[in-house]
Amino acid sequence: MKNLMLLFALAISFVSCSNDETPITQEPTPQLEKVIVFKNTANEQTWNFSATGQLYECLNNAGQRIESYTYNDKNQVVSWSKYTNGAVTATYNFTYNAAGIVSKINTTDITFNANTGYYSYTNNGITREVTLNADRMATFVKETNGTATTNYQMLYTAGNLMSFARTSTSSNFTKNYTYNTSATYKTNLGAMIAPVALIKSFMEPDFLANGFTSISVPEASQNGNPAALRYEYGAIPSERAMLFIGEEFVNNNPGNLTSYQEYYYAN
């Protein structure tokens, strides 16, 4: 954490010295143009947004398109394409009911069980039963593949993901988040990717693990309980960007500084 504090102090000092007559703006313009996640890793992705705030493509760390999305006039994802080496490998089309919930993926219906509250979808032998909250965010997903079952549990408080847990017969994974509600940076990223998060709840629920759907950027995250691995986060502002830096702790020993998210805003 000392490394983080020193880094942020230097950044603020630099901005203050180079803009003596210009006050530092705490809130960036809401026109988010690009977000880079998992910076400098094999999983790095660049998410590009339209002028209307819709995530329309994801690029890998080589700059190749790996996903694209199209929307209807209700800001609902109606088509999702996946790519390999620039070529489309799969396309999914979505239909919605009057409540704004996905009712069909391609030609397969999503059924609702009023007794359990599950929305159920089966594809390629895998069935996912999804529970949604009032914000249409998944709070529980039960995935069944033959005799194997995997459960995903997401706990939200005041619009922020507090915990993600994946349990199965073969492995378990838990990630917990903490927020400083008086100081944590508020972000519109969660609202902007909510349409994508909804469709991925039925197809790739691990997408929900990283807290991108939250209305705030977390102050810290912990893997496991008790946590052998945790990250503490902080923000470095500039004129058209907001960089979120994380410091890794292994068994409470501070380690490397890593980039958690990078936000870039249009002029």
Automatic annotation (TrEMBL):
Name the UniProt record assigns to this protein: DUF4595 domain-containing protein
Organism the protein comes from: Flavobacterium stagni
Domain of life of the native organism: Bacteria
UniProt entry keywords in alphabetical sequence: Signal
Signal peptide residues on this chain, from the entry's feature table: 1-18
